[in-house]
Write a structure and sequence with these properties.
This protein is α/β, with parallel strands linked by helices. About 40% of the residues lie in helices and about 15% in strands. The strands form 5 sheets. The protein has a 6-stranded parallel β-sheet, sandwiched between helices. The longest helix has about 30 residues.
Length: about 400
Amino acid sequence: MKIAIAGTGYVGLSLATLLSQDNKVVALDIIEEKVDMINRFVSPIQDEYIEKYFDEARNGSRKLNLRATLDYKDALSDADFVIISTPTNYDEEQNFFDTSSVEDIIEKVISLNNPKTTMVVKSTIPVGFIESVRKKYDISNIFFSPEFLREGKALYDNLYPSRIIVGATTPEARRFAELLSSASLREDVPVLFMESTEAEAVKLFANTYLALRVAYFNELDTYASSKNLDTKSVIEGVSLDPRIGSHYNNPSFGYGGYCLPKDTKQLLANYQNVPQNLIEAIVKSNVTRKEFIANDILSKKPEIVGVYRLTMKSGSDNFRSSAIQDIIRLIKAKGVEVIIYEPALDEPEFNGCPVINDIDDFENDSSIILANRFSDDLSDVPDKIYTRDLFARD
């Protein structure tokens, strides 16, 4: 069958790679450079398994029936499934996701008048979005299927999914679930069918729980640091309780990335007229944590603050909404100079801060070096490092 995928970020490109092993897949994007790279089987994003599969496609050891295009008619025409994985950023003024990119694809599919096409939204959306577009466009051939992927490990998480959730119970929904499960390498993947509104809620509540967990251990670290306690000892003692566990317990500068900041805010917005305290506290906690980190750094009175990487974690090239960016703004607001080491940037500066891509020059010029996650790159200047990475892992 033909599968069209709109959007080639972590979600779209990992699904395109996964499904192109047994289906004809056409990826649609608006960036010519990305389209060209995909057509040469060069990954435009950092992801170990996508890069591995693309390398094998180039050398002929793996067959991927995948191509990319800028032409929406080429991509969407005659498609059995159109998977929509375009970005939906949170609009702070409207207190809602900007879903215009998703609706743009929906309108394009409708304009092609193909009755066999089923649209599957993978972009993160507000609770109730699918129901609203069904009414708005008078359509029924659309449902939501949430993704649960990690940056840098998106294809791996599609190959070994924790669960597959499909927001419909139609034959097309079951067909789509079979597409995903048959392409996975995990046996007996849990598959849940539910209405799209419930599936939308699953996505937002799952990510908000992860944000809660990050915020909890960050606040534990804030307390321990303020009281001169050994944070690592406290976390290890807490995490040995099997009801708590040792996952997602490594302190950081705050949660960030593609999903957690915007999804927590969207869930909070969905709570309008519904009693809550915890969801709002999760959002506020992340702001408080970044302020604590910035003030802790400023208390050391550095002349020049060096920032080692803007990315959220190792194995990822994404620095959208990374916590370090807010910390940079807070430090600069106090008149302290900030320099950045970020090999993924070609520009000479970022948000008014010089970008220095020679690691030796960067280390020499920095009075203190902020590293959300420690790297062996910095092993020669241990006395300059400021990090809350206690376990040397994400």
